[in-house]
Design brief:
Chain lengths: 616, 287
């Protein structure tokens, strides 16, 4: 007995093993601490340089804590005990702050590009698929609606964006030929070429859908109202598509500019809201909501005009932030008995900020000597006076570049990933080819960004003779850069969908496409979005490729569209860091870095919100 | 059964009339119609062999599955039971390494013929898997999935009938629109059966449907399978010999190497097997 109990005591070999284990644990803790401390130091320095918190007076801190920190902490504590309120709080915060940031981003981009162009594109690009959807409601065989909507959208995109490049030169050539050959015919000769091509495109755009519709109506009797609605929408779409620069634009440009903003932001928001409410509470509630939203928008315009302000920004904020907030808050108050208090969360924060700012001015308290000021956000660059320096064109440029980049890279990347995971063969020489392609894509994810810059330079400037530093070239170059990351992460997400689900779907007699669309993709969306978050985060901070393709570091005007000279916040930081005056290198650079981080975090937050919705 | 037969319309020769005349070498030494019935065979295999790359999984299998019966397929692990089952609805097509030789006829049509669409075939041959695999959708959408992918109209009645037939309706009728993943394992498996029978298939394949379930859930599934034979032909793979003895009309015994050793009425297999190896396997000497 004595020998047995001795072996259980801490001594000899066991003690050594225990010490070794403890030492290993201590090393791991040290590694974690080193990483944390390095990050805290980095962000701490940046934060101090950007906001200058030491220069604020004690009173300011008192004010700060009493108006903002204390109420927000109290509310957070309350929400921790009530999970329903926490959910409602998260939803309301997403609506308020997401809506605010997105509205502001949309507003400044639209202002840079002039909202009339996007409004025309919105009408033309969306009306064709919408008309197909409406048509699908009135036919029995509606299986074609999905593909037809995609096709119509692609057609409309090609038609509107590509018409200048693809269609009109062709039509001009045809009309020119017609004029040469039939110059004597007075009717044709007197038609100016733009009007002629407009007429021809209109004939195609109205004629083809009308013929298709007439064909199906003749075969099956449908209700007269339905047919009329389809004709109206088709006619509108055709007019929009055809008369891109002949018909709609001059009419629209007569309208006040706020109505263009209201159209671009308000139409989709109102449409989504109407769909949501109609689905939940029926047609009557949906119509009421639309009437309320439109009335609210007009009221905002009336009030803004009455106090002689430009209503544009307020209209954008109303539709982009006010309507989603009202929807979330309304839904919580009506149906969420336990969590309805939670929707107050964002308003506690907003109210705290407003009251704090008001009291700060009223009591003339000395605040921190911050570099993150309205001047920085709204001015253009000033290289001589640091307090006058602003990064507005760069912020607009960054938002434009990153959104167009995401629009280009996301469908291509996810599409490639779906092909490689779900369709590409695994065995034989084709399988080896697939493996080779996958290996290369994985390697491309690690290629230095400078190399992608050279690719963009070679492709856009040397080969296609584009002007240097266009928004389009920058977006496409960064798109190439993140494409492998998007593909690899989407592939991982698709791989994580269990095969048993695919088998279940095939076993039910689903085709491969049905399996992918209704089983695999919904399961993979959260994973795909997680990968995309990482890719977007990498792209927004990229500097080297933009330098290579000669995006200007200093601009004084915002980019006017896809094919005008771009600008980007990381380039702004890069060039500001070379300024001779120390306040640029310390304060302005740090403040710009904060702006960049906020841009990145906003995008991540949007992606996380979408991801969480899909995971429910 | 007045099930419309898509495969025969696809242009292959109709050999249903001859099928009962062809006796396999396994069934020839016992009289098939001991119970005085004259069953029609739904699925017939002739010299069916399956290889995964170089490895042989099924060796020259000749087997007839009869209408409205439960046919159990038993055998030790790796004997090709599941492979055989997956040949019947061409799920092995999803395994690129698999090559199939010989003939497999479903109601007279060689399903590995050129004109046969595996998707159309799977619409007539439903399948239930070893582990419950409901889609991460609502219960209603799970049952409606087959109808939707087959472009058929989904009505609440069809969903209700399928759930009732799968003996699940009473338990889930108040939560049709909650996630199917919230159900227990046994309920999930019955949902998978409801999902499979909602599209009214001809044959139902079951790959060890109760192996991941507890005894109570298992007995519910077994009762259900017996009820289903009034309308469906059921082929069930199981490693549980008692289960095969309880629920099946006929039993096929596969042994290692993918060889079909014996196929006969279940009572014969369990009481008086012809092959010594089957007796050894059934009495638990190996496997």
């Amino acid at each position: 007995m004595a020998t047995e109990s001795e072996t259980l005591q801490r001594s000899g070999r066991f003690q050594y093993a225990e010490i070794r284990g403890k030492a290993f644990e201590a090393i791991l803790i040290a590694a974690t601490l080193v990483g944390l401390v390095a990050l805290i130091l980095l962000f701490g320095f940046m934060f101090f340089d950007a906001f200058g918190p030491l220069s604020a007076s004690l009173e300011w801190y008192l004010l700060f804590f009493s108006t903002l920190v204390a109420p927000v902490s109290a509310f957070t504590l309350y929400c921790r005990r009530n999970p329903a309120a926490r959910t409602a709080n998260a939803r309301a915060s997403a609506a308020v702050f997401g809506g605010l940031v997105l509205s502001l981003a949309a507003y400044i981009v639209l202002r840079a590009m002039s909202p009339y162009g996007p409004l025309v594109y919105l009408i033309t690009v969306s009306s064709m698929p919408l008309s197909v959807a409406v048509y699908g409601r009135y036919t029995e065989n509606s299986y074609f609606v999905g593909p037809a909507m995609v096709l119509a959208m692609l057609l409309a995109i090609v038609w509107t964006f590509g018409s200048e490049v693809l269609l009109f030169p062709l039509l001009d050539a045809v009309f020119g030929l017609g004029n040469d050959l039939l110059g004597g015919v007075p009717v044709l000769g007197s038609v100016p070429v733009p009007v002629g091509r407009g007429l021809l495109v209109t004939a195609i755009a109205v004629g083809v859908p009308t013929l298709a519709l007439a064909n199906s109506v003749l075969r099956r009797r449908t209700s007269r109202a339905g047919i009329l609605a389809v004709f109206a929408v088709l006619g509108l779409s055709a007019a929009g598509t055809a008369g891109l620069d002949q018909l709609i634009r001059p009419i629209l440009e007569v309208l006040p500019i706020w109505s263009a903003y209201a159209g671009v932001i308000g139409l989709p928001v109102t449409g989504i809201l109407a769909l949501l409410i109609t689905r939940q509470r029926g047609m009557r509630a949906g119509i009421t909501a639309v009437v309320a939203v439109v009335g609210g928008g007009l009221a905002v315009v009336a009030i803004a005009s009455a106090v002689s302000m430009d209503p544009s920004l307020w209209v954008v904020l109303f539709f982009g932030m006010g309507v989603p907030t009202a929807y979330v808050v309304g839904e919580a108050v009506i149906s969420d008995r336990d969590g309805r208090v939670g929707v107050a969360g964002p308003f506690v924060i907003l109210g705290g900020i407003l009251v704090g700012a008001y009291l700060e001015r009223l009591l003339s308290v000395t605040g921190p000597d911050s570099w993150v000021t309205p001047t920085l956000l709204t001015n253009s660059w000033n290289g001589l006076t640091a307090t006058e320096a602003g990064a507005y064109p760069s912020i607009v440029g960054s938002i434009m570049i990153v959104s167009f980049m995401a629009l280009m890279a996301f469908p291509v990347g996810v599409g490639a990933a779906i092909y490689l995971e779900e369709y590409a063969p695994d065995t034989g020489w084709k399988g080896r080819l697939t493996n080779l392609v996958e290996l290369n894509i994985a390697n491309l994810a690690g290629v230095p960004s400078v190399v992608y810059g050279l690719l963009g330079l070679a492709l856009f400037q040397n080969l296609l003779n584009f002007a240097p530093g266009l928004v389009f070239s920058a977006a496409a170059t960064l798109g190439f850069l993140i494409l492998p990351i998007v593909i690899v992460s989407a592939q991982e997400a698709l791989k994580a969908v269990p095969d048993s689900l695919r088998e279940a779907s095939y076993g039910m007699g689903a085709s491969r496409w049905q399996t992918i669309r209704s089983v695999v993709l919904p399961e993979a969306v959260p994973g795909i979005l997680t990968g995309t978050i990482l890719a977007l985060g990498r792209a927004i901070g990229e500097t080297a490729p933009l330098i290579i393709i000669a995006v200007p570091t200093t601009t004084f005007t915002t980019p006017g569209g896809l094919f005008s000279s771009g600008a980007a916040v990381p380039l702004r930081i890069f060039s500001a860091s070379a300024n001779f005056a120390p306040e640029y290198r310390k304060g302005v650079v740090a403040a710009l870095a904060i702006v960049l981080l906020v841009l990145m975090l906003t995008m991540n937050a949007i992606a996380i919100v979408i991801r969480n919705r899909y995971q429910q | 059964m007045s099930e419309p037969d898509q495969e025969t319309q696809a242009g292959s020769t109709d050999e249903t009339g001859n099928s009962s005349l062809i006796e396999t070498h396994v069934t020839s030494d016992t009289s098939v119609d001991t119970q005085g019935e004259n069953p029609t065979s739904v699925v017939e295999t002739r010299n069916l062999s399956v290889y995964y790359d170089e490895e042989q999984a099924l060796d020259d299998v000749n087997l007839d599955i009869y209408e409205q019966e439960v046919t159990a397929i038993i055998g030790p692990s790796g004997c090709g039971k599941s492979t055989f089952l997956r040949c019947i609805n061409r799920m092995n097509d999803l395994v690129e390494a698999a090559t199939i030789e010989g003939e497999l006829r479903f109601r007279g049509t060689d399903i590995y013929g050129d004109n046969v669409d595996p998707v159309a075939l799977r619409r007539q041959i439903g399948m239930v898997f070893q582990h419950p695999n409901p889609f991460p959708k609502s219960i209603y959408d799970n049952v409606a999935y087959g109808l939707r992918v087959q472009d058929e109209t989904v009505t609440d009645e069809i969903v209700e009938t399928a759930l009732k037939r799968a003996a699940l309706w009473e338990e889930v009728k108040d939560q049709l629109h909650t996630s199917a993943l919230d159900l227990s394992g046994g309920q999930q498996q019955r949902l998978c059966i409801a999902r499979a029978i909602a599209v009214n298939p001809d044959v139902l394949l079951m790959d060890e449907p109760a192996s991941a379930l507890d005894p109570i859930a298992t007995s519910k599934i077994e009762d259900l399978i017996e009820d289903l034979t009034s309308e469906y032909t059921v082929i069930i793979v199981t490693h549980n010999m008692q289960q095969a003895a309880r629920i099946s009309d006929r039993t096929a015994v596969f042994l290692t190497g993918g060889e079909l050793v014996e196929f006969d009425h279940t009572t014969t297999i369990f009481e008086n097997p012809a092959d010594d190896r089957v007796e050894d396997y059934i009495t638990g000497k190996f496997g």
